[in-house]
Design goal:
The structure holds 2 protein chains of 2 kinds.
Chain A (H helix, E strand, L loop, with lengths): L10 H13 L12 H14 L4 E6 L2 E6 L22 H13 L6 E2 H12 L11 H14 L3 E5 L2 E5 L7 H14 L3 H8 L9 E4 L9 H12 L2 E7 L3 E12 L6 E6 L6 E5 L3 E9 L3 H12 L13 E8 L5 H10 L4 E4 L4 E8 L6 H5 L5 E6 L2 H19 L7
Antiparallel strand pairs in A: 1-2, 3-5, 4-5, 7-8, 7-11, 8-9, 9-10, 12-14, 12-15, 13-14
Chain B lengths: L8 H15 L4 H11 L4 H10 L24 H10 L27 E2 L13 H16 L1 E8 L5 E14 L4 E8 L2 E6 L3 E9 L14 E9 L4 H8 L5 E5 L4 E9 L3 H9 L5 E5 L1 H17 L3
Antiparallel strand pairs in B: 2-3, 2-6, 3-4, 4-5, 7-9, 7-10, 8-9
Classes of the chains: A alpha+beta, B alpha+beta.
């Protein structure tokens, strides 16, 4: 099949965008068993969509392609472009514009009436054109009714079609759309709306913005449908593993670049977390009648989660004492704003104590390390955590202790 | 359906072309311009020929269109449901959009569906009346290119005021805060919107469009060696994916990462690097290594081994 920059299915391109954006050091031969032709085509497509953000490097291992973006410098997530590359047929595009032209909000038309306009006014302009058959039009009308672009109503005994009244004042939404398209869930939908604005000044910019959430938007939408309809879902995970779960919440890390779905296994056990970028497909199943009981149990459970790690469901107690100088009160403020389910007590003028009881204290390790330089004591009921922290500290001291730290 | 051609750059580009064709005359040159402005870099190879060659039956060979009115696509149900969902977000109060037309629409999601588990707890007070008022004045100033007189409390609680030329409004999802980026005298200043006590619109600033390009933030670069232990490679690659970075593979499961960051953020970057423990070793520059060493030395003194 001839190359096209448009795609029928977005799932494959997710892998490539991730490889190019997150890692960017793999060459063609290392891209997970994909054929050279497939690699070349996908790379060319992404280049076509994201030309301004693609970089290349040639080294001994071959040519590396990578996407490098300072997210503060871009007002619009460039990865949304993949969602705007859906392929279509000749009939799709012709009927789209013909239907928008022939229909209006005020003059409904039956299918036969629409066909009459096509046959009488539009087709004669193109002498070599094939006629539009009734079943093709009927199918397209149904599709557009499902999308909400066309309304179908009974008029007497016949079905008539019209455009919906466009009574949303989009102008009043412009600033909100510009903001939430980048900073809100499923921002790609906002990006679709942004495309409607003739000119839109980008006053907003974004720090700590994880652009790579964009390719997972389809998975997120399906999971939200399951959550809101209280339905079980079959998750197809990377590695062809299938799991049936009850999705409950979406957990988003604003610091780690990861999104998860919290889901109940439905077997009376605690919830599990699945990264959205590890889910290939979501299939919605039947609704669960006692959804509220699962949701309530999870709410109770999550009050003792530090993040998304559940450990072995036994609470672990952790305590950390920090020495904070008089000129370092911002550290105490940091503790307060970052404590999550923990507690902070001021012990005296220079000492603060953080305590928490969580299901997996190991997960706190990266956060604890951010206080290096001020930690006077650290203890945990799980000795592995204590030992790991001490061992890491010793390893870091060794790393920065000598002069041989420069990598050439 | 999220992935659909009605949202595609091709349909948008064709709508723009047909819109111009209906209201006047369109030329082949203008078609190419529109495609280059609105579609992908290779679209110009496929889109104009299909349109001009009558394959899509929208333009004749003489570039006359059969359409009677400029194409206007209504909002889809998905788009309306997304807009309705925004009404459940506390930040929507800052924008006060007209909610008419969405009365019978179900929100696509609710704010309660999401847990931002590592977001800082001292985010801006989005529903505070003074905050909302200041935010809207700032938006007006940005749109109308006007200066602002801003009174604020600095981090030490001291009241200060000044006249600023607003440039951009920056939001951080981690901090859940807005910061106003202002320019003047070749420098850029950040103002925390949450610290503003009063904000007044002043006259238009006379910066022309070209001169108004804010000075690029000063950036610094560091390199670090990463050891892929405990899944550190994936964690670090995702964690730092908000920054411009470049990664090279070394030997024995090690990688060399070059990271660029805005110079004023150096303390934040030190903290982010420390969070990876011994899996990350800063290789350069020496000034950054000194910052890490300073913390390690301080730690050593607190708990001598």
């Amino acid at each position: 099949m001839a190359y096209s920059e448009l795609i029928k299915d977005i799932s494959r391109i997710r892998d490539y965008m991730r490889e190019f954006f997150v890692y960017g050091f793999k060459n063609r031969d290392e891209m997970g068993g994909k054929s050279a032709r497939s690699y070349d085509n996908e790379r060319r497509r992404i280049e076509s969509w994201l030309a301004d953000y693609m970089s290349f490097r040639q080294d001994a291992n071959g040519k590396n392609v990578f996407i490098s973006v300072d997210t503060r410098a871009v007002a619009r997530n460039p990865l949304y472009q993949a969602w705007k590359a859906k392929s279509f047929t000749k009939n799709d595009i012709t009927l789209h514009f013909w239907l928008l032209d022939v229909l209006s909000p005020s003059e409904p038309k039956p299918l036969a009436g629409i066909l009459d306009v096509f046959d009488g006014e539009y087709l004669p302009r193109f002498p070599n054109a094939d006629p539009i058959d009734e079943s093709t039009l009927r199918k397209k009308l149904k599709e557009y009714v499902d999308l909400g672009l066309i309304l179908a109503e009974m008029q007497g005994k016949q079905m008539v079609y019209r455009l919906p009244e466009d009574n949303v004042d989009l102008q009043s939404w412009e600033d909100a759309v510009n903001f939430f398209a980048e900073a809100g869930p499923l921002g790609v939908i906002g990006s679709y709306i942004k495309d409607k604005f003739v000119t839109s000044a980008d006053f907003f910019c974004f720090k700590h913005n994880y652009l790579l959430f964009a390719p997972d938007s389809g998975i997120m939408l399906d999971l939200l449908m399951a959550i809101n309809e209280h339905k079980r879902a079959e998750l197809e995970l990377v590695g062809d593993k299938l799991l049936t779960v009850l999705p409950l919440k979406i957990f988003i890390s604003t610091q780690g670049g990861r999104q998860y779905v919290a889901a109940s296994s439905l077997q009376g056990k605690r919830a599990a977390f699945f990264r959205l970028d590890s889910i290939r497909k979501v299939k919605l199943l039947d609704a669960v009648p006692d959804y509220d009981a699962y949701a309530a149990a999870f709410e109770d459970y999550r009050s003792r989660l530090w993040g998304v790690a559940a450990g072995d469901s036994h609470l672990e107690h952790i305590e950390m004492t920090l020495k904070i100088g008089e000129t370092e009160r911002h550290i105490a403020h940091r503790l307060e704003r970052e404590k999550r389910c923990g507690l902070v007590d001021q012990l005296n003028d220079t000492h603060w104590r953080f305590t928490a009881d969580v299901y997996d204290a190991q997960e706190m390790m990266p956060w604890l390390r951010t206080f290096i330089g001020r930690i006077e004591t650290l203890s945990c009921s799980n000795r592995t955590v204590e030992n790991r922290f001490e061992a890491d500290l010793a390893a870091m001291t060794a790393l920065y202790g000598g002069d041989g730290h420069v990598v050439s | 359906m999220l992935f659909h051609e009605v949202y595609s750059v091709y349909f948008n580009a064709v709508a723009a072309i047909l819109g111009e064709a209906v209201s006047g005359e369109i030329t082949a040159k203008r078609i190419t311009e529109i495609v280059n402005e609105t579609a992908f870099s290779e679209s110009v190879l496929m889109l104009p020929p299909s349109l001009k060659g009558e394959e899509w039956m929208l333009l004749g060979r003489n570039l006359q269109t059969l359409l009677r009115k400029p194409p206007q696509m209504p909002l889809t149900i998905l788009q309306k449901r997304w807009l309705k969902a925004l009404l459940g977000d506390p930040r929507i109060a800052l924008f006060a959009p007209d909610t008419a037309g969405l009365e019978d629409v179900d929100p696509l999601f609710s704010a309660e569906d999401f847990i931002y588990f590592d977001r800082y707890a001292d985010g801006d007070p989005f529903s505070d009346k003074v905050y909302m008022k200041n935010f809207r004045i700032i938006l007006t100033a940005l749109k109308e290119r006007r200066k602002l007189k801003i009174r604020q409390k600095n981090r030490h609680g001291k009241k200060i005021s000044g006249t600023f030329t607003p440039c951009k409004l920056e939001y951080s999802g981690k901090d859940d805060k807005f910061r106003l980026i202002t320019v003047g005298g070749g420098h850029s200043y950040m103002v925390n919107v949450g610290r503003i006590t009063k904000c007044e619109l002043l006259d238009e600033h006379n910066e022309n469009a070209m001169a108004f390009i804010p000075p690029a933030p000063r950036t610094d670069m560091l390199t670090f060696e990463l050891t892929d232990d405990r899944n550190a490679l994936e964690r670090a690659m995702l964690h730092f994916s908000d920054c411009r970075k470049e990664t090279r593979r070394l030997e024995n499961g090690k990688y060399l990462v070059t990271l660029w960051y805005n110079s004023p953020d150096v303390t934040e970057i030190v903290i982010r690097i420390l969070s990876f423990g011994p899996m990350v070793r800063v290789a350069s520059p020496d000034s950054f290594i000194a910052l890490i060493k300073e913390r390690m030395d301080k730690q050593e003194k607190l708990r001598p081994g």
